[in-house]
Amino acid sequence: MTAVCPGSFDPITLGHLDIIERSTYIYDRVVVGIADNPSKAELFSLEERLDFTKEALKNLAKVEVLVFRSLLVEFAQEHGAKVIIKGLRAISDFEHEFQMAHLNKRLDNTIETVFLMASPECMFLSSSAVKEIAAYGGNISEFVPSGVEARLADKFLKD
Ligand code: PNS
């Protein structure tokens, strides 16, 4: 069975990695979809996000990393996925995720959203928090794959 795991991955964190890796214990194939959303102001370009996300996931044999520009349910349909995987951290994620899961179900009621609870050490980890810490020169090595740490350092040293 195929699952899709969507996100902005700006940048990928160890929290994303935790959810994606655990998805591979359940599903035969996990298609990670990087959303190309021109209306969202991302720190990293699509090419950069694709590059470091692929690098971070290269040891997970069941995982493919692709870009999508469509509705998420269309991306799932294209790849024969009947499951959308989302990670849930604190309760604050719930309302937004609950709304998206219901809307996606309205768009295609054959596709289910499955939530995996974030592992305790990732419970308060987010891409935006990581970017903020990095912007102030803080240590993010415990939060992101090493490739991403280097990219963030580059980004903020240059700016
Ligand atoms: O990592 P993010 O930013 O929380 O990911 C959000 C994402 C990419 C999952 C969401 O924006 C999305 O599904 N985008 C695709 C467009 C779409 O299908 N929108 C309707 C969902 S209700």
CATH class: Alpha Beta
**Main sheet: strand order:** 3-2-1-4-5
Q: pLDDT below 50 for ≥5 consecutive residues: which ranges?
A: none
User: What's the count of strands?
Assistant: 5
**Overall CATH architecture:** 3-Layer(aba) Sandwich
Which structural class should the secondary elements be placed in?
Answer: alpha/beta
Strand content: 15-25%
Give the topology string: H per helix, E per strand. Answer: EHEHEHEHEHH
N-to-C CA distance = 44 Å
Round the Cα radius of gyration to an integer and report it: 15 Å
Shape category: globular
Q: What ligands does this structure carry?
A: 4'-phosphopantetheine
Helical residues, percent: 40-55%
Count of helical stretches: 6
Please identify which CATH superfamily we are dealing with: HUPs
Textual characterization of the structure:
This protein has 159 residues and is an alpha/beta fold. It has a single domain (2-158), classed as 3-Layer(aba) Sandwich (Rossmann fold), CATH 3.40.50.620. The protein has 6 helices and 5 strands, in the order E-H-E-H-E-H-E-H-E-H-H. The protein has helices at residues 14-24, 46-57, 72-78, 94-107, 127-135, 146-158, and strands spanning 2-7, 29-35, 63-68, 83-88, 112-117. The chain has a 5-stranded parallel beta sheet, with helices on both faces. Helix 4 (94-107) links the parallel strand 4 (83-88) and strand 5 (112-117). The termini are far apart. The model has no long low-confidence stretch (mean pLDDT 96).
Short synopsis of the structure:
The chain has helices spanning 14-24, 46-57, 72-78, 94-107, 127-135, 146-158, and strands at 2-7, 29-35, 63-68, 83-88, 112-117. It has 159 residues and is of the alpha/beta class. It has a 5-stranded parallel beta sheet, with helices on both faces.
